[in-house]
Structures are given as C-alpha cells and as structure tokens.
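Title: [Solved] G-protein coupled receptors family 1 profile domain-containing protein 3D structure

Original question kept below for reference.
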Amino acid sequence: MNVTTSTTIDTGSEIVVASPLYLAYDTDADFRLSISLTACVYALLATFGIIFNTCVCITTVKYRKYYTTLRSNTSILLAVESLLEIMHQSGHIIFFVKFLIFGTKFITAKITSFMMFIPTFGVGGAVCTLFSLSADRLLAIAIPIKYTHFHQSKYIMKHLIFIVIYIVHYTFEMVYSAISQPNLMVSGGLSDLRSAPPGAKELNQYLNLAVALGSVFNYLVVGILIKLRTDTSDDRIKKLYRSLSLIVLINIGGYLIFYTFIAFTHLPFILLTPVQYWYCTLVYGLFLNTAAASVGPILYLNSDEYREAFKRAARDLLKFIFGKTANNSTKVIPMTAQR
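Solution (posted by the thread starter after getting help):
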C-alpha cells in the first residue's frame, strides 16, 4: 500500500494539491532527471512498438487476400491487438512531446486524464484482446471442426463487443479516478492515472491481473491439448509450441509481471512512499511496453506467411519511396556481327 500525504498550495491563480511526487520534484534534482530519462526511454520503446504494430495492421489489411494465415480469425484479432497497442504507446509519445515543450513541469490530473484518454483506451483494450486471442486459440484446438465453420464476421463481432465493454469500463474508472481530484499535480505520464487518488482504479488493476492470468491459463490448456492430440516431434508442432511459449513469456508475460507488481503493492503490509512506487512502476513498466511491441517480431519469427507478407510490404514501400528502378535502368541489347 502506498503511503500518501498531499499538501494544498495556493499558486495565486488556482489551488493545487501538491502530492509527495510534486514536492520531490521541487527539491530533488535526481527526481527531475529521472522524469527526463523516463520521457526519452519510454518514447524510444513506444516508437519501436508503434512501428512494429503498424506493420502488423497494414500487412493484415493490405495483403490478407494473398495469404491464408492473414485471413484467419486469429490474424484479425492480432491486428486489433496491434491497433490498440498503437493507441496505448501513443501515450508515451504524447508525454515526450509534453516534455519537449514544457520540460518536467507538473500538470494537473484533470489535464492528464484528457491527454491520456486514447492511450488509456488502448491499454484496457490490449489487455482484454490478449484474453480474446487466448480464447480464440483454445476454441480452435478444443473444437477444431466446429471452429472452422464459424461465421467470421459474427465471430469477430462477438469478440469486439466483449473488448469494447471492457474498454469502456476500464477507461471510465481510470479517468474518473483521476478527475475526482482534478487539481492533483502529476508529471503528465500515462502511469500517473495509476498514481491518482485511490478508488475504483485499484479494482481495474486487479481485473487486468485476472485477465492476464486467464490468458496464461488458456494457453496452458492449449499446450496440453496439442501435446495430447499430436506428435510433438513434428517440426510444425515444435514451431507452434515455440510460438505459444514466446506469446506467454513475452507478450502476456510483460503484462502479467506489471500487474502482479501493481497488485502486490496494494497489499496492506507493503509500505512504499509515492516516490518509491513511481520508480518501481517505471521499472516494471519496461516489461509491459516490451510486451506491447512484441507482436510483430513474434509473428515474423514464427510464421512463414507473415514473414513473407512483411518482406513484401517492405519491398512495396521501397518501390513507393524510390520508384521502380528497374524501369529506369538502361536495357543493354547485344549486337550481332554484320555480314
């Protein structure tokens, strides 16, 4: 549980709530440096994540008619996951831009909640979509014949309805918790919505942990069913196992590590100052943001069709940027000897 003491300060133009983080910002140069480094490191991670996830979205939409894998239910859900991760990681870019313009200056929780509305939307949706993906894989293995006869549009719509409901609940609770004390001074990052006054947002953190654990459980069941029903010495099955392992360890694992830490800090015998909690959140947040950027690389490493689609997209992009050099090259025609 966080030990929190806030002080009310009259700035002349408004009355603000100076949290321990805000007071540390005024007195601790190392803390101000940490905010600067955080903005840069997370923006770098987010840039890679946005690039990788954009590749997944574009490849799925543009090249799905050429590759069977990209037309599957799973690929559509992966594209949804990537889109939501783009929204999520855009929050770190917003924070970096805020840092470039205003420096490490603190802003109110109310302003932060508006700035981070779309990123919060993305975080909630990404966690929920990971569960949808695990449920999709479980259905494909548990009832393969029936699964192949699902009407794709209706099937995907059911997943999307579930995801949207989760997003609305998650976003409302996080933003409402932040604006319940609108004049609380925070650094302006996405994690500050978790540092806002306690309330229903704590339930959201436990809910995200439960969803992540549910995703891991589904994949464990998938692994067991595959082992029981197939020959695990087959190269294709080995690749599938490797893919599942990477998804659990990296993709879901990053979220699981982060939300386990968040839940752990709310235990009554865990006493952290707000500054200590802030630092710990940043460290464990690296796992979450690595997970957010991992969908594209995992697909590239473990799917031949995705790999070929990514390469095709890269070739098309180069042609678009540099033009069709082949058409501009000089064609050499060998001369025959005259008689």
